[in-house]
Amino acid sequence: xxxxxxxxxxxxxxxxxxxxxxxxxxxxxxxxxxxxxxxxxxxxxxxxxxxxxxxxxxxxxxxxxxxxxxxxxxxxxxxxxxxxxxxxxxxxxxxxxxxxxxxxxxxxxxxxxxxxxxxxxxxxxxxxxxxxxxxxxxxxxxxxxxxxxxxxxxxxxxxxxxxxxxxxxxxxxxxxxxxxxxxxxxxxxxxxxxxxxxxxxxxxxxxxxxxxxxxxxxxxxxxxx
Length: 225
Hints:
There is one protein chain. By secondary structure, this protein is an alpha+beta fold. It has one domain: NADH Oxidase (3-Layer(aba) Sandwich). Helices cover about 40% and strands about 20% of the residues. It has eight helices and eight strands, in the order ββααβαααβββαβαβα. The chain has helices at about 20-35, 50-60, 80-100, 105-110, 120-125, 150-165, 180-185, 220, and strands spanning about 5, 10, 75-80, 130-135, 135-140, 145, 170, 195-200. The chain has a four-stranded antiparallel β-sheet with strand order 3-4-8-7. A hairpin with a 2-residue loop joins strand 5 (about 135-140) and strand 6 (about 145). Helix 2 packs antiparallel against helix 6 (about 150-165). The longest helix has 22 residues, at about 80-100.
């Protein structure tokens, strides 16, 4: 592999297979068809999932681009039933308050077709929980390291994570109870890490129903110049 110095730092030559136009179209179409099957699922089978599957899913999330390549994320993988029980209890308490007083009527009306409420049994039923934390700054040898575009970087990594979960044949639901500080306390995370997203991961139940909704068409989301 060819190497060269740029600004005094080693760079490696990069290449991808030179695919035909037909193969490019096939790859793009196949990936779209696969991802278009992805759905948010709240009903989980309790059967186990090999941990190496989840580890490789998280490895995939770790390949996401980030500001100045600081990789400002931490992925906490939870399998312990007692920790899951604590997370569910704290999350449901926040959700109960939100549904009762924090959410405006319009928000609850928009959620109605999705069949959601404050109860979150999936936080215990799913074999794994992945809690993603964003690092406000880094630490190296006890010294503070600045991070850049943290929320954007972690958001992209979460997109990779969700795609990898689906590609592996598993399901998830993006859960963001507000506030989420209880996750830092239960998992004993350092002060420079802030909870960003909670994802239960596992197999869908054999008989699972999801809302009959449609995604926006290409014409609705694409603007050409």
